[in-house]
Amino acid sequence: xxxxxxxxxxxxxxxxxxxxxxxxxxxxxxxxxxxxxxxxxxxxxxxxxxxxxxxxxxxxxxxxxxxxxxxxxxxxxxxxxxxxxxxxxxxxxxxxxxxxxxxxxxxxxxxxxxxxxxxxxxxxxxxxxxxxxxxxxxxxxxxxxxxxxxxxxxxxxxxxxxxxxxxxxxxxxxxxxxxxxxxxxxxxxxxxxxxxxxxxxxxxxxxxxxxxxxxxxxxxxxxxxxxxxxxxxxxxxxxxxxxxxx
Length: 246
Prior knowledge:
The chain is of the alpha/beta class. The chain has helices at 8-45, 53-56, 166-173, 202-245; strands spanning 51-52, 66-73, 79-86, 89-100, 105-115, 132-139, 159-161, 177-184.
């Protein structure tokens, strides 16, 4: 194209960046749709009647299912999930094994959030010793199974962790346990249980997608502008040289 001379380097830059920007835009749209479906599933399942544990174990997609528990906590093997914020305040979430007596299956129950204002003093919590009737719901991390990276076997209890793999915990303790975290609803044994379902809503992903697409469009506009501008400058330069030659 004689009227379009963007140059080799700008062309290479555009060919390298444009597909990435467009891909990032569509990726954000896909993430937003995934979050929307997740929230729809959450809204539907969180109003359902709690099921017994043996029914939960047969579910192919356990995310957000409500479950009815009857049994007791194991306070000797508590996990404290670190760096959990609530209203700007630093704290931890308390997770403890819970033996459901009807199914004879262990579940890793998140009892909720606790403040931890002073790192020099361990977080303080109590554990009910009697058998409890509880209602909880299954939490599965969006896009992947719930995984916690456990501290090395043999570490002291309670353990301060940033992540946990339940199956590794059950293997260490020699128990048969459920593979996902279950979060208590308000009631006996619960601390603060106001968890967000997702850290970023669908509208945020859509806004980020719009930004990536806008950057792609701006890149194309700049590419076109400099291409036509360079071509016009070259034509004017050629015309000036011809006049001088005459």
